[in-house]
Amino acid sequence: MSEVYLNGAFLRPEEAKVSVMDRGFLFGDGVYEVIPSYGGYFLRLEQHLNRFDASLAAIRLDNPLSREEWRTLLRRLIGTPPAADQAVYLQVTRGAPGSRDHLCPAGTQPTVFASASPIKPRRPEIAQDGVACITRPDIRWQRCEIKSISLVAAVMMRREAEEEGALETIMHRAGLVTEGAVSNVFVVKNEALMTPPNSHLLLPGITRGLALLLAEEHGIRYLEEPILLETLRGADEIWLSSSTREVLPVTRLDGRPVGDGRPGQLWQRMDRLYQAHKEQVRNGHV
Question: What distances in angstroms separate CA 26 from CA 5, 21, 81, 93, 165, one per listed residue?
């Protein structure tokens, strides 16, 4: 990470400073977005920026930059020529007024931050062995469709998963699956692919949307419908999806095997489709 963007300037990371009065620091009052880049081309850039706009609108904060300004900023952060595959992080907070108060004074300038970092390649053994997850009640607030920087619940869930030897926590509310702490969830049962419908209880994942698009284009039957916790626990396959981890197979849930304990055939097909799409992005064909 040779430089970051902060409030109109490109700086070395150690030079970038934010006021201790910033509302992102004091209240978690802001939103963020993460956009993957392959070979200098962004994966579903417009969809990511649309979701960013929606999150800003939901917290009643005007987008401080135009769409073209964001595109220019992103292109600079990934470099020319671009470095290896990268994830660009965008964050806007409500700014840094002179005092701490739940109400923010009108006219406060938002804080705009962005950076890029390498995407770690998927470990080869994941395609062979899958990953482990645990399940826990969803303790978060009721506006999970907002990509808020207030992520303490996700931090708690990820830490608990790690303590249990798992990668991720899959959450449930009132007996229904919502999502992972940092991912969306898919279930395969009787050869049908299912995922919970978008609502205020989960983030409308961009990778989730791409997986459904690939399924539709290639004749994979899928349903967007509520998933019972019991259905999750009896699934033939479980997948996780996120922008930087793509689509991962879950082979152990709460210490028990999922299906036969190996990545399933439908996941293998989806992974081939996803990797082919990613290569199209890398070559500038999407």
Answer: 21, 7, 38, 11, 32
Please pick, among 17, 120, 147, 278, the residue that the annotation labels catalytic.
Answer: 147
Q: What is the Cβ-side half-sphere exposure of residue 80, based on CA atoms within 13 angstroms?
A: 5
Q: What is the pLDDT of residues 89-130, one digit of tens each?
A: 999 999 999 899 999 999 999 999 999 999 999 999 999 999
Which amino acid is located at 141 in the chain?
A: W
Q: Is 147 among the residues known to form the active site? A: yes
Which domains does the chain possess? 4-118 (3.30.470.10), 124-282 (3.20.10.10)
Q: What is the 3-state secondary structure (H, E, C) of the chain?
A: CCCEEECCEEECHHHCCCCCCCHHHHHCCEEEEEEEEECCEECCHHHHHHHHHHHHHHCCCCCCCCHHHHHHHHHHHHCCCCCCCEEEEEEEECCCCCCCCCCCCCCCCCEEEEEEEECCCCCHHHHHHCEEEEEEECCCCCCCCCCECCCHHHHHHHHHHHHCCCCEEEEEECCEEEEECCCEEEEEECCEEEECCCECCECCCHHHHHHHHHHHHCCCCEEECCCEHHHHHCCCEEEEEECCCEEEEEEEECCEECCCCCCCHHHHHHHHHHHHHHHHHHCCCC
Residue bearing tokens 């991962």: 248
Alpha-carbon gap, residue 106 to 103, rounded angstroms: 9
Model confidence pLDDT, tens digit, residues 132-166: 999 999 999 999 999 999 999 999 999 999 999 99
Per-residue tokens: 201: 């209880």
pLDDT at 84 over 90: no
Token pair, residue 144, equals 């999970």
Q: pLDDT tens digit string along 210-227?
A: 999 999 999 999 999 999
